[in-house]
Amino acid sequence: MNANKYVVGVDFGTLSGRAVVVRVNDGAELGSAVHEYTHRVIETTLPGTDVGLGPDWALQSPQDWIDVLRTAVPEAVAAAGVAPEDVIGIGTDFTACTVLPTTADGTPLCFETPAQPHAWPKLWKHHAAQPHADRINELAATRGESWLPRYGGKISSEWEFAKGLQVLEEAPEVYARTERWIEAADWIIWQLTGVESRNICTAGYKGIFQDGDYPSEDFLAALNPGFAGFAAKLATGTVGDKVNGTTLAPLGGLAGRLTVRAAEWTGLPEGVAVAVGNVDAHVTSAAADAVAPGQMVAIMGTSTCHIMPSDQLAEVPGMCGVVRDGIVPGLWGYEAGQSAVGDIFAWFTDTFAPGSDHERLTALAEQQAVGQHGLVALDWFGGNRSVLVDHNLSGVIVGQSLATKPEDVYRALIESTAFGARMIVETFEKAGVPVEEFVVAGGLLKNRFLMQVYADVLRRPLSVIGSDQGPALGSAIHAAVAAGAYPGIEQAAAAMGKRTEAAYVPDEARADAYDRLYAEYQRLHDFFGDGKLLHTLRAIRNEAHS
């Protein structure tokens, strides 16, 4: 039945959107296209204005997302050489939490008031809501809110409630105009289908939806009386089963069908099946055919997300969340992560090694023995997502001297991200959630030296995804399920997903040497993790900017 049928997966990333056309019966990727966002990440000044943004702001433009549908999708279909009428479904994924305020009909408020910063979508790495997250965490811990342990004891400044509270308290007029506070993952589905829906993945991980409900009005009012009705702005559509009055859409479900307007954008036929929205990291598990309990997928790019299904529920300190049905229906889905990984390497190369590139620095670093540089670093240059959940922490490099070279620091930074990944894996296993297989996806797979460092530091084999376009392929797999080509995500992943097991294996001698460096990383982690020094430095910086 699936022969000569195709699906489209669209991955909305941090800097660009990518579309891929996939054959339904075997997952072959036949054509792809990329659209670079015109506005990229908005971090300093609002487009077309002189309105400046403060520290730790990161916004995006909804117009860039629509332009991906208008350009990347038809270009990918043309590159694949398939007839549009043979496409049976389209699926999408987004960075998260990337969230925006809209009117009741889905119009982004930034289209109406482009000179108001809080009217724009807040990108996942918008960390300016950290003080609001701190208050949410403190109050939830004091009150013993039952949902807090599901997020490792802390919710993140990156998530819906912290960002929403920031809007209320810094731009109350924008908050009052906000009829919908919606993840970009769900907003783009709304634009494709004309139907508003909320997927269970983003609601659970980023919207604090647990055991059938959001945090209570009483809790929200204790934060700020004006915040009591915030959950009403998380209104949902008609897709899925109602739980305590809230409608959430299951992953792999049919969100709706392509409207006339969306068909004109994409060049696909009206009525094509549209899969329920999803998050880029979580959807990649299907692309790697890693949807069984204990298969941890690390999606390594500008940041890293660690995603793992499990058949058991546990409280893992510092995890980003555990959500029932959050990766595949019927299992608990765990998430952890590192706020900056590839971003760290790019920052160092661009700022401190002008004239060098990643390939040259990698080649020089690879020539060293483990520990030869005499350095150890903390991978907190974008804050710490797991296991400390504190985006006011910052990077640390210890051991530099007048003999330190750029490649020394570059290697130490690579190692620091591997140490951070090991901290996450060990935290899961200490909590009784075993990691049976470590699977790597994402752009950093291209760096073979980095992959070997991870295998050595983790002391375990690394499996690797068999696609350069994991999120887009995963979205296409979900589209196949939504279109009825497969009965569930597991079956579709088995037929269309791909990975190579044990592609990198640890070297015992290097692993032993890394154990010594990891012990020093742990000492630094515990010493600076209380935030006393790093928070003070950030406060001084923020005061200087004001």
Automatic annotation (TrEMBL):
<keyword id="KW-0547">Nucleotide-binding</keyword>
<keyword id="KW-0054">Arabinose catabolism</keyword>
<protein>
    <recommendedName>
        <fullName>Ribulokinase</fullName>
        <ecNumber>2.7.1.16</ecNumber>
    </recommendedName>
</protein>
<dbReference type="Pfam" id="PF00370">
    <property type="entry name" value="FGGY_N"/>
</dbReference>
<dbReference type="InterPro" id="IPR005929">
    <property type="entry name" value="Ribulokinase"/>
</dbReference>
<dbReference type="GO" id="GO:0008741">
    <property type="term" value="F:ribulokinase activity"/>
</dbReference>
<dbReference type="InterPro" id="IPR000577">
    <property type="entry name" value="Carb_kinase_FGGY"/>
</dbReference>
<keyword id="KW-0119">Carbohydrate metabolism</keyword>
<dbReference type="InterPro" id="IPR018484">
    <property type="entry name" value="FGGY_N"/>
</dbReference>
<keyword id="KW-0808">Transferase</keyword>
<comment type="pathway">
    <text>Carbohydrate degradation; L-arabinose degradation via L-ribulose; D-xylulose 5-phosphate from L-arabinose (bacterial route): step 2/3.</text>
</comment>
<feature type="domain" description="Carbohydrate kinase FGGY N-terminal">
    <location>
        <begin position="6"/>
        <end position="205"/>
    </location>
</feature>
<dbReference type="Pfam" id="PF02782">
    <property type="entry name" value="FGGY_C"/>
</dbReference>
<comment type="similarity">
    <text>Belongs to the ribulokinase family.</text>
</comment>
<feature type="domain" description="Carbohydrate kinase FGGY C-terminal">
    <location>
        <begin position="297"/>
        <end position="483"/>
    </location>
</feature>
<dbReference type="InterPro" id="IPR043129">
    <property type="entry name" value="ATPase_NBD"/>
</dbReference>
<keyword id="KW-0067">ATP-binding</keyword>
<dbReference type="InterPro" id="IPR018485">
    <property type="entry name" value="FGGY_C"/>
</dbReference>
<keyword id="KW-0418">Kinase</keyword>
